[in-house]
Amino acid sequence: MHEPSTKNDLFRPAYPAEDLEENRDRRPPPGLALDPPEAPPPEHPPEIPVDRLDGDALKVIARLRHMHHQAYLVGGCVRDLLLGATPKDFDVATDAHPGEVRAIFRNCRLIGRRFRLAHVYFRAGKVIEVATFRKNPTDVAEDVGEGEGDLLITRDNVFGTAEEDSVRRDFTVNGLFYDVATGEVIDYVGGRADLEAHRISTIGDPEIRMREDPVRALRAVRFAARLGFTIAPDTFEAMRRTAGELARCAPARVLEETFKLLRCGGSARAFELLRACGALPVILPALGAALETWDDGRRRAFFAHLAALDRLVRSGAEVSEAVLLGALLMHLGADAPRAGRPDADAGAPRWDEADAFLASLVQTARLPRKVAERIRLALQAQRQLEEPGKRRRRRGRGPAGQTYFQDALQLLEIRVRATGSGGEALERWTAEAPHAHPAAERPGRAGPREDRRDHRREGAAPRRPDRDEGAVREVVIPVEAAEAADEAGEEVREVESSAAGDAGEGEASQGGRRRRRRRGGKRRRRRGAGASGPDGGAQVPPAEAGGQG
């Protein structure tokens, strides 16, 4: 018979001491998996100080290395750190497959259809993106001649090594890896030289790179405009020759890159480069055609508005998509007087041409109609913002009470910076912005019907003046009388009132009667402010007294 184990058996080692010594070498490394990596030796100081790295990204790399995987910081974060800037986000590249990353981190979610990516979530909505090393599906540079074949990449699900992942990237400055364990920058593609020369250059043959993914031309323009770099001559020529290939890309992806161009802080230079390489008529046909027909004055006005948008973005203000695209339309009609008012200010805009231009963007650039309508409302509000201040009878009836007020105010600020006129209107509306109606902060209505009705009644004057300041007496209608009233089809209404305050204290009486229908139930109560009886109480109306008798 098996003897029950005692309490001391629970703490007795399962293996002899000599077996523990033999198995100690096969145990995982000591310490927690999420501990940050050890600092490099003193004789090899890190090229990037550890205090400039993101702590959560270091935790992700430490756990991947703890599970015997390669893991590096990669892409734009390494580029920005070497330039002395603060990265927007930190990306990690590893040899672990997406399923393995998901098994290592419980706070991880796999996304993507074309290529699976792992998003590791932290507090406050922070996300560290982890991608597996990839390589190009085929080495097309050796098999395809110039001008032959279709090089557009539609499937990119081929895993590779760290060097292959660096070589398959678009530009040399984005192909740098950083090993936090050794504190060294890993450069397989010569990105350090281009970074020091402030040059944007493709990895490999520029013609093949642009034909593989034509959106890379927009990315090259964005990096050159935001970082202040120049584009290599061979890369720019390849962009010019393959500009027409942008029409084959997904419209949603092209529109997303357009928003990034407007939000990069160098949109004025970016649109000059787009016009020079021939990509602007492809992604924004109406704008490209308009720039070719405008005179020098209107072109300068257009780029002045984009420069004002760049200053607003660099100031750290939160700019919506409506403001980004609205800045493209702010200059339209700036030189024409208002319709029907020849004596109006020549700088006052007329938005007829802008409306037609916006409609063309919806058709050609796949702009969502919701965003287009928001832009249209913000542009049309410019007339009200520029007019002299008028005293409104009710709060929330003017532009400050609308949902698009913040967009309209930012567009007014852009116009003031671009033209130098309208500063007084901007100061007036900026002072009123903190006191804007809550409807300008949320697009929905106040709430349910009862909440809106209570909000309207709050602080409202009584519908009818008080007829008496006597006490209020509650009268109960018997069940039989209520049933008789229901059978006759009469509506029993509840009359709400309250007793009047002390006349000497000057308080206003709130005894006005408010009627509301009450449906359902056999027992109803009715309250009213009746006249005082001889005994000081409320006098019961004759009909009600008869019902109680």
TrEMBL record:
Skewed-composition ranges (Low complexity): 473-482, 497-511
Keywords: ATP-binding, mRNA processing, Nucleotide-binding, RNA-binding, Transcription, Transferase
Source species, domain of life: Bacteria
GO molecular function: ATP binding; poly(A) RNA polymerase activity; RNA binding
Domain Poly A polymerase head: 71-200
Reactions listed under catalytic activity: RNA(n) + ATP = RNA(n)-3'-adenine ribonucleotide + diphosphate
Bias kind Basic residues: ranges: 512-528
Documented EC number(s): 2.7.7.19
tRNA nucleotidyltransferase/poly(A) polymerase RNA and SrmB- binding domain: residues covered: 228-289
Enzyme's top EC category: transferase
Comp. bias intervals (Basic and acidic residues): 1-10, 431-472
GO process terms (BP): mRNA processing; polyadenylation-dependent RNA catabolic process
Active-site annotation: 89, 91, 170
Region (Disordered): 1-51, 431-549
Matches recorded under InterPro entries: NT_sf (IPR043519), PolA_pol_head_dom (IPR002646), PolA_pol_I (IPR010206), PolyA_RNA-bd (IPR032828), tRNA_ntf/polyA_polymerase_I (IPR052191)
UniProt family annotation: Belongs to the tRNA nucleotidyltransferase/poly(A) polymerase family.
Cross-referenced HAMAP family: PolyA_pol (MF_00957)
Protein's job: Adds poly(A) tail to the 3' end of many RNAs, which usually targets these RNAs for decay. Plays a significant role in the global control of gene expression, through influencing the rate of transcript degradation, and in the general RNA quality control.
Name of the protein in its database record: Poly(A) polymerase I
Native organism: Anaeromyxobacter dehalogenans (strain 2CP-C)
Gene behind the chain: pcnB
